[in-house]
Amino acid sequence: MKTNEIISKEELLKHWQGHRSLTRRVIEAFPEKDLFEFKVGPMRPFSLMAQELISIAGPGLKGIVNRVEEPYSEKIDLKTKQEILDEWDKVTRDIDVYFNMIKEEDFHDTFNLFGEYKSPVYENLLYFIDNEIHHRGQGYVYLRALGIQPPPFWERY
Fold it and tell me: Which sites bind a divalent metal cation (predicted)?
């Protein structure tokens, strides 16, 4: 199903990468100890949220491109802020490569992400972005609770 274009493939990638840049700055804003230990109520520390985002975006996008429906696995155990930032940067580079392998005509094809979430490719991509925004919002709450001013949410560069 082809519809009139609202935004281009390149604009969608730029939008996603803008969110990734902002989330990276949120990770950077945390003191090392608080990144791994601070939490509010039953929520997880932000380090675990960041690792979830890392384990979804890269493998999920590779699955879409390669049409591999492997189960979701959060089998990463990053121990320092620098390890998280390094892995974040690696996945960010992977996104550029794999996103550009998706043909525009395939955006409406159904794909069963992680063998569990059967929806059009574009909905899977929007899920990656939405999930990141959701968890970044939690990071903003944490930073404010720690007395740290988070980066402006509108500065996605």
Answer: 135
